[in-house]
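Work Package 3 (structural annotation) set out to generate three-dimensional models for the target panel prioritized at the project kickoff. During this period the team completed the workflow that converts sequence records into discrete structure tokens, so that structures can be stored uniformly alongside our sequence database. As a representative example, we reproduce one entry of 338 residues exactly as it appears in the project archive.
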Amino acid sequence: MRLSILDQSPISSNQTPYGALNESMELAQAGEALGYTRYWIAEHHDLPGLACSAPEVMLSYIGANTNRIRIGSGAVLLPHYKPFRVAEIFNMLATLFPNRIDLGIGRAPGGSAEATNALSDNFLQNVYKFPSLLRDLLHFLDDDFPADTEYSKFTASPIPEYPPVPWLLGTSKKSALLAAENGLPYAFGHFMSDDDGAAIIREYIDDFQPRKVGQTPQVIVTVSVICGETTEKAEEIAISFLIWSLQKEKGEGSQGVPSIKEAKQYTLTEKEKESLKKIRQNMIIGNPYEVRQKLCALQTKYQADEIMINTIAYSSKDRIQSYKLIAKEVFPKGKTFE
């Protein structure tokens, strides 16, 4: 089983944004040492408790401090930007870090309405135009606009030896079919979705149209996981993320991920207890054996080529330890690089 990392660069209640971003770099280094396939970092705007608003900046920092692991965006929110500029940035990254760059693409706003308006004067129009924006971006990456089109006379330079690999990210049938239509690998956000993901992935695979010779459908499923030495330890670590999720739903949580002690002191209403049950449905919380069993079940259910793990905890040590325990349980002996 191939495993990867999705990092949202969470800020804990005792942290500065600098501390959170530096811990993201340390997580990428740990992922590389442990044998994870790729590390992606998310894009968010004006969301308290999440530090990364510019994945391309962090990828430069992380690329310079790692050697092998694939690195990418999870995702660049394309409706905010011109495809040409996105292609330039990721071609630049792919030139600096050959054969290591993924370009995850999404259509969500990634933040508040106010931040969305500050980023773009026409976000909603660009959401409607997303399929054509995506096609333009792919042409810029492949440097293959037809000769009679307006964009055929220039390139998104520098043109790297190994182009960035585009992935479409989503949680819906609409995004899956768009990925299939354009011959793109697809990353499904199980941790964010209430839909029947397995049925969505089946449609993606059935409708896949290769963009290049030899292409086949590729599927990543992203899941929220917290692993501890024991089930009880995992549950204790998870309480910080669970309470923070409730706080964000209420418009709170601006102080960042609460400590375990702070989270345990939070008084739950009956409605919030029901909300917690719903959040937990899309999570995996447990000891290494339990986590491996559930990851294997997810892989089978989704026909996934790879599982991408998102872990948020108050303590960076707990977060990295969770990835270590999973790697030790899942990977064959000798897989890690420590």
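The two ends are 19 Å apart (CA to CA).
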